[in-house]
Design goal:
263 residues, alpha+beta, two-stranded antiparallel sheet, 18% strand, elongated
Length: 263
């Protein structure tokens, strides 16, 4: 009897491939329904995600518990995070022109809006916002002990590159520039972190072939942000639906599927 596999192998292989785009969507739907149920007063998805990230809840608590779990279950979950990181580094996936990666994750708004220091009687101060909720004005000031200004610069938004390019800033001494920039970075509107950058002597999670800073709550916030950004990229049609992207969503699906079991 003739074996027809050779003539039909491409069709069979195609059928064997798993559509992880669809699987991810199916896993995201119960998560989305859970958010709608528990946060009915919040209208926008971004508001709900920020709340899930910033407050204790079933979903975030499950991530933290699995990260800290010293067992095969915990090790498996951490390995899945390593797999997702590996896929995201190998294949560029973006959301609104920003790459989705564990090396640069927005955790949330920075509660600090004033950064200041002094050196030899010279004061350095940067303030983001003017007190109103939606203000993005950024004011940078260097002044002498008598209150006279050495440098005074107002911006409509937080933009460190614009500050560096300012003609008056360029003429400052290197020490003055660095001190002001240190103050400027303290008020960056959003807290961002690279989880793969381990400070000397710091504890870390073993996540497959990778190491992540051992900060359970922050890593949970980062993972939630990545899942949401992958959702947005997929729902908004920003990805190329090829084999590589499918692998990324496969890694994300395996994590999300575990987490929705807790809802």
């Amino acid at each position: 009897m003739n074996n027809l596999f050779a003539g039909q192998k491409d069709e069979w292989i195609a059928l064997a491939n798993i559509d992880y785009f669809g699987a991810f969507i199916k896993a995201y739907i119960p998560f989305n329904a859970w958010m709608n149920y528990y946060y009915p007063s919040l209208q926008k998805d971004r508001e709900k995600i920020n709340t899930v990230k910033s407050t204790p809840n079933t979903f975030r608590n499950k991530i933290c518990a699995l990260l800290d779990l010293d067992s095969q279950e915990g090790s498996h979950f951490r390995n899945l995070i390593g797999d997702l990181h590996d896929m995201l580094e190998k294949h560029y996936i973006h959301n609104q022109d920003k790459r989705i990666t564990f090396t640069n994750i927005t955790l949330g708004r920075n509660p600090e809006n004033v950064g200041e220091c002094s050196r030899f009687g010279i004061g350095f101060r940067v303030q983001y916002g003017n007190g109103s909720a939606n203000s993005t004005n950024t004011h940078s000031l260097i002044k002498k002990r008598d209150g006279s200004a050495i440098f005074n610069f107002n911006q409509s938004n937080y933009n460190i590159e614009e500050l560096k390019a300012n003609s008056s800033f360029v003429t400052l001494s290197t020490d003055y520039q660095n001190l002001l920039l240190d103050c400027y970075k303290k008020v960056e509107p959003y807290i961002q972190i690279n989880f793969t950058l381990i400070p000397t002597g710091a504890s870390y999670f073993e996540c497959g072939d990778y190491r992540f800073v051992k900060e359970s709550e922050n890593l949970a916030k980062g993972l939630i942000e990545i899942i949401y950004n992958l959702r947005c990229s997929l729902f908004h049609g920003e990805i190329v639906p090829n084999k590589e992207a499918n692998q990324v969503y496969g890694a994300a699906y395996r994590i999300l599927y575990i987490l929705i079991q807790s809802l």
